Amino acid sequence: MAAPRYRPLQSDRDDLRIATLAALALAIHVAEAALPSPLPGVKPGLANIITVTACWLYGWRVAAWITVLRIVAGGILVGTLLSPTFFLSLAGGLGALGGLALARALPGTGPVGYSLLAALAHMGAQFTAAWWLFIPHPGLWLLLPPLMTAAIVFGVLNGIMAQAMIRELGSQPARDGHEAT
Question: Which residues span the membrane (predicted)?
Fold first, then answer.
């Protein structure tokens, strides 16, 4: 009997970078899940500091991988996989990636702008998913102003922290899918 034929997986620097940053974001995500929430749907989103930093330094593709890995692995570890919480998290994460794509397209946008746009898009996508999938009640709209206010506050604060990380790392933004120096 012949040995099975296989092709060994090849990993590169990006794979290691994505795995490391996703693990860091996941650890923050799991720790943050244990924090009490003052209002349903309001968390600081500290894992997004890693995503914004990664998007700035290594590009949108790396940020997208980190986001998807964090959401799926976080759903498994926290026990919310395929629950309403998971789908709200997924909607928010995809919305945030859209916000990051927009931020990258706007000239002169810095890490705080990246984070702010991502936070607003995240909250908007989560709210829309909650409305469409779970609570199509007019009373839900009363939550939108405090939720968007929280998104602004945490988006700016997380952006300031991402900017400090980027400054500490001393790197310029990635453009056109090429790694920053």
Answer: 57-79, 86-106, 112-134, 141-166
Task: Quote the crossing angle between the two packed helices 47-58 and 60-78, to the nearest 10°.
Answer: 160
Q: Walk me through the domains of the chain, giving residue ranges and CATH numbers.
A: 14-33+42-169 (1.10.1760.20)
Q: Are 177 and 59 in contact, with CB atoms under 8 Å apart?
A: yes
Write the pLDDT tens digit of every residue in 4-54: 677 666 678 888 889 899 999 999 999 988 888 877 768 888 999 999 999
CA-wise closest residue to 34 among 66, 88, 74:
74
Residue 115 near residue 162, CB atoms below 8 Å: yes
CB distance 63 to 111 below 8 Å: no
